[in-house]
Amino acid sequence: MKLMQTVSAAVLVMLGSAAGLAQERGGSGIAPSSASEPTEDPVELGGALSKLERSSAAALATGGKRRKSMEMLDGAHRLAAILKDAGYPGGAERFRRMSQARHMVQIGRPSNAVGILRDDARRSLGSGTSTTRKQIEQADSGKLVIDLEGREVGRIESIDLSTREVIEKKGGVLNLFGFWDYGNRLQRRQPRCFVPGKEYVVDLCSRVGAN
Predict the structure, then answer these.
(1) Which of 87, 103, 129 lies at the terminal end of a domain, its last residue?
(2) Does residue 199 carry a pLDDT above 90?
(3) Which end of the chain is more exposed for a tag (fewer CB within 10 A), N or C?
(4) 120 and 141 share one domain
(5) Of the residues 62, 97, 129, the one at which a domain ends
(6) Whole-Å CA distances, 5 to 12, 112, 187
(7) What CATH number does the domain containing 156 carry?
(8) What pLDDT does residue 136 have?
């Protein structure tokens, strides 16, 4: 037991030293904001949800990729929750259908879930403008960040609306196997890159290979 504790302590010291060295060499250690940013938030987010629905439906229909299909379905459910929380037109209805699809799988009726997913993937969010949705604010600091596939990729480190900068910490979240990802790095983002929900914040800029 003492040996394991000693090794664990040594690993943590090494990680801390590496992080400090990286900051010394790279200044603040914060990557600049991405040059490419989303322009049509409702279309982008709604399209990401539809893509996940089609992929999840296809995996469920084969019957051989239950775990993978459920991962995609859970991701779609997170995206739909943000659509609802942020006030996108049609977001509440899409969230209701995602919840229904998950319930169908849980009670052993995956074929019903496939139908719901395929039907919803054909729908659009409506004609609302991006200015109607909720904007990121100080209260969203500390929330988990998901990408456009609904995967947890980091956390909101800090928000400075006076300089119009959001610092996002990539990594540092539990992966599927329960291990912490120590690939933490800080990255600057413009507030318009994010759409906040009650539990998660989605990073719209993650689609341009910023992860």
Answers:
(1) 129
(2) yes
(3) N
(4) no
(5) 129
(6) 11, 50, 32
(7) 2.30.30.240
(8) 86
Separation between Cα atoms, residue 211 and residue 208, nearest integer Å: 8
**Mean of pLDDT values over 138-145:** 90
Distance between CA atoms of 11 and 79, rounded to whole angstroms?
36
Residue (of 75, 153, 87) closest to 117 by Cα position: 75
Side chain identity at 27, as an amino acid letter? G
Cβ–Cβ under 8 Å, residues 159 and 141: yes
SS (H, E, C) the chain: CHHHHHHHHHHHHHHHHHHHHHHHHCCCCEECCCCCCCCCHHHHHHHHHHHHHHHHHHHHHHCCCHHHHHHHHHHHHHHHHHHHHCCCCCHHHHHHHHHHHHHHHHCCCHHHHHHHHHHHHCCCCCCCCHHHCCCCCHHHCCCEEECCCCCEEEEEEEEECCCCEEEEEECCCECCCCCECCCCEEEEECHHHEEECCCEEEEHHHHHCCC
Angstrom CA distances, 19 to 15, 25, 98, 159, 192, stand at 6, 10, 40, 22, 29
Q: Are 91 and 65 in contact (CB under 8 A)?
A: no
pTM equals 0.71
By residue range, what is the domain housing residue 194?
134-211
Number of structural domains (the chain) is 2
Mark whether 102 and 141 lie in a shared domain.
no
Euclidean distance between the first and the last CA atom of the chain, given in angstroms as a whole number: 37
> Average per-residue pLDDT in the chain?
74
